[in-house]
Design goal:
The chain has 9 helices and 10 strands. It has about 290 residues and is α/β, with parallel strands linked by helices. The chain has one domain: Alpha-Beta Barrel (TIM Barrel). The strands form 3 sheets. A 6-stranded parallel β-sheet has the order 1-2-3-6-7-8. A two-stranded antiparallel sheet has the order 4-5. The structure holds zinc ion (2 copies). One zinc ion binds next to loops.
Length: about 290
């Protein structure tokens, strides 16, 4: 199969979910897809185990087989595809974080850090910000007294706090809190308070040295109208010299390079000339 149009060689994907969490397909099938598409590198990032039930994180009983299967694929494809073992770690203060000993002890190649859970107070994981619309409405109504601004500001404070206290290698879907705001029913990205909240989180990400991803997964799956983050945030990030990488947040093997050419275009439009990539020899910048 030819390489996706407009895509230059040298670009990998580091945000990949398999059947061990909420994705479909075995690690081996994702590696085959990467080879077919001519991608040189592939990183796996299963959702970490959390100490309460969900229908999308990795059950504790699956963690060992996830680690084992990805390591096996890493061995089997050596010389043909660089495979990296990672995890998408939640940040829930006082409970779990990208630098929690349970994560650090896994012998991972990289960690993606995410804020999915949000509650009316730190450490409260009552709602997810990237769930269905009804969950967002419920959170705003019952967690924040009908005040969407309160929820959004808490989201960005948590993101900033993750970067400051538990910096991962990669910060996931920076403005995922906009997922259910397609019609602007909760806020406007032009609101001064929204821009201020974003700016504070960007400051912390820059200080941390984390790589920020441009996440195409929501658009590919049809759950978001635009990539994370929005173009104006990318422009700001570029001005601040925050390193970026394009990630698919793939949940099926065929999605591992979904909308990459469009994302690269957006990066160029924001002023970026290169994106960061993890290689066997460490982190490098690859020209766009
Ligand atoms: Zn995520
Ligand atoms: Zn993900």
């Amino acid at each position: 199969m030819p390489m996706a149009e407009g895509m230059k060689p040298g670009i990998g994907n580091y945000h990949t979910h398999t059947y061990h969490c909420d994705g479909h397909g075995e690690p081996r099938e994702y590696a085959e897809a990467a080879l077919k598409k001519g991608m040189p590198r592939l990183g796996f990032s299963g959702h970490n185990v959390v100490p309460f039930p969900t229908d999308w994180t990795m059950p504790a009983t699956r963690l060992e087989s996830y680690l084992h299967e990805v390591r096996e694929v890493k061995e089997r494809y050596r010389g043909r595809l660089e495979v990296f073992l990672g995890i998408e770690a939640d940040f829930i203060p006082g409970m779990i974080s990208p630098v929690h000993r349970d994560i650090r002890g896994l012998g991972l190649d990289f960690v993606i850090g995410s804020v999915h859970f949000i509650g009316p107070s730190d450490g409260d994981h009552a709602w997810t910000v990237d769930g269905p619309l009804e969950e967002m409405e419920d959170a705003v109504q019952h967690g924040f007294g009908g005040d969407a601004r309160g929820l959004v500001e808490r989201y960005y404070r948590l993101l900033a706090s993750m970067a400051e206290t538990a910096a991962p290698d990669i910060v996931a879907h920076f403005d995922v809190v906009k997922k259910n705001n397609r019609d602007g029913q909760f806020f406007s990205e032009d609101d001064a308070w929204y821009r201020a909240a974003v700016k504070l989180a960007l400051d912390s990400v820059r200080e941390s040295g984390c790589v920020m991803e441009i996440n195409t997964g929501g658009v590919v799956r049809g759950t978001s109208g635009s990539f994370y983050p929005s173009p104006w945030i990318l422009r700001e990030a570029c001005r601040m010299d925050i390193p970026v990488m394009v990630n698919a947040d793939a949940h099926r093997p065929e999605q591992i390079d979904g909308k990459f050419p469009e994302a690269v275009q957006l990066l160029r439009g924001a002023g970026y000339r290169a994106q960061r990539q993890l290689t066997r020899r460490g982190w490098i910048d690859v020209e766009l």
